[in-house]
């Protein structure tokens, strides 16, 4: 695939370039700030953008804002965000966008090369990839205020795998349950969250967003 990388750490940026090149991917541009990310994305129209959240000049949300702009202007381009920490608001914004092709990983996940490359390919192919630690942080709520309290432990497990972007067969394999069992749990989740068939937009995503906005 063709990628644009935005990362202000020269060491990490060069490491990513080398890793991706060794895997047969083409890094068409590598930059260190959000404005340059937008410029290079407009120029190259890559298959996927890999970006940090915090970059110059303010080191707050430049990368995230650029990522969301890319989602609006070029929805066919996948966006995978890397962050040092779980930025709940930023991750919520990404999950809330339509159309798939989005992911959010903690930078430590890059060290697990197989999982990192799998996430890249999943997002580029139109899916989603959210770090398990990010998902756990996003859906953590106290029992008295958390709609998750309505779910059984197994339904919670299924919801976590859904949020990571796994397909139904993938969830079944990860949890060692049948595909029909997965479908049963997912339907129960939708019912408990009052997500009816009329919700045309991905109920898998809405099942997470409902908690974040509650």
Question: What do these coordinates show?
Answer:
It comes from Lentzea atacamensis. This is LuxR family two component transcriptional regulator. The protein has 214 residues and is α/β, with parallel strands linked by helices. It contains 10 helices and 6 strands. It has a 6-stranded parallel beta sheet, with helices on both faces. α7 packs across α8 and α8 crosses α9. The chain is globular and about 45 Å long. It starts with a strand and ends with a helix.
Q: In total, how many beta strands?
A: 6
Order of helix and strand elements from N to C terminus:
EHEHEHEHEHEHHHHH
Query: Which structural class fits the helix and strand makeup?
Result: alpha/beta
Which whole number gives the mean pLDDT?
84
Radius of gyration: 17 Å
Cα distance, first to last residue? 38 Å
Question: How many DSSP helices?
Answer: 10
- What spatial form do the alpha-carbon principal axes imply? globular
Low-pLDDT stretches: none
Helix share of residues?
Answer: 40-55%
Biggest β-sheet: strands ordered side by side in the sheet = 2-1-3-4-5-6
* Proportion of residues in extended strands: 5-15%
- Characterize the main sheet: 6 strands, parallel
Task: List the SSEs and their pairings.
Layout: E1 2-6, H1 10-22, E2 26-31, H2 34-44, E3 48-52, H3 62-73, E4 78-83, H4 88-96, E5 102-106, H5 113-124, E6 128-130, H6 132-139, H7 153-163, H8 168-175, H9 179-192, H10 203-212
Parallel strand pairs: 1-2, 1-3, 3-4, 4-5, 5-6
Helix pairs in contact: 2-3, 7-8, 7-9, 8-9
